[in-house]
Amino acid sequence: MKNLNDIIERARSLPGKKIALAGAHEVDSLLAVERARVEGIAGSVLVGHSDEIEAAAKSAGISLDNYEIVHEPNPKQISATAVKIIKAGRADALMKGLVSTADFMRALLRTEGGLLTAKLLSHIALFEIPAYPKLLGVTDAAINISPTLDEKATIIGNSVSVFHRLGIETPKVACVCAVEKVNPGKMPCTEEAAILAGMNRAGQINGSIVDGPFALDNAVSPEAAKLKKISGEVAGDADIILCPNIESANILYKSLAYLGKCECGAIVVGTSAPVILTSRADSDATKFASIALGIAVS
């Protein structure tokens, strides 16, 4: 996968896919799913109060003739109703519209009737970066604040599963820290990076090549890796950047998006169906790419 258009074309190649939009009474969300419909990515089931959905659609200039509307008058139940639609096989990906984040996450994580399949949820963004020859995954910028070693192993597994579904059999995962050498005691993330690499070599983390610790430069630049005499299949050629915590991942995500002007598609994984979370601050291109990514891996 060289760019976001590759993901969009893959999504287009999967006919009959649908999104369950929880809280469809929001103009931005309706515009996003309408573009997905018009461009042949997916149809949508709109969940929420039907009167409010109709008012939002009128404001956006969208005809509802092409949509199924599921009337749910109780705001607290909208997300749960959307999850039931996924569970019933009537939609392939879940998208958050104008609903409470707490209610949305509660519906996802319910022991009975939720969508959680992995040990935990995690967020991955795939960036198209002009200076990089392929899409670059960044995880986890949105869900896990300070993941433990075991949680990082699960986050790697979640991210790798996305690449597998995109046809990349053995993605390269770089465990990134501030430095590329283990610094015992003072920089625990470097120790954990080395342990994760060892777990991968021992077969405890499968389907990928995991290495680290890396500094960001020698994870994505062959020249930097060569200069610092860092070898291995991941050095300078990472597919996925595993950041040590949410602060570093979020800063990297927003640096790429706002300073680098890079577009991305982002989803939440670890669930039986992809979860599309877009922000009002996201560009239209990022919203569309996130929907396409969710459909492409569904």
Structural notes for this entry:
With 298 residues, the chain is an alpha/beta fold. It has 2 domains: 4-117 and 271-297, Rossmann fold (3-Layer(aba) Sandwich), CATH 3.40.50.10950; 122-259, 3-Layer(aba) Sandwich (Isopropylmalate Dehydrogenase), CATH 3.40.718.10. Helices cover 40% and strands 18% of the residues. It contains 11 helices and 11 strands. The protein has helices at residues 4-12, 27-38, 50-60, 78-87, 101-109, 149-165, 188-201, 216-220, 222-227, 246-259, 284-296; strands at residues 18-22, 43-48, 68-71, 93-96, 122-128, 136-139, 172-177, 209-215, 240-242, 263-269, 275-276. A 6-stranded mixed sheet has the order 8-7-9-6-5-10, with helices on both faces. It has a 5-stranded parallel sheet with strand order 3-2-1-4-11, sandwiched between helices. β5 (122-128) and β6 form a beta hairpin. α2 (27-38) crosses α3 (50-60) and α4 (78-87) packs parallel to α5 (101-109). The longest helix has 17 residues, at 149-165. The chain is elongated and about 60 Å long. 50% of the residues are buried.
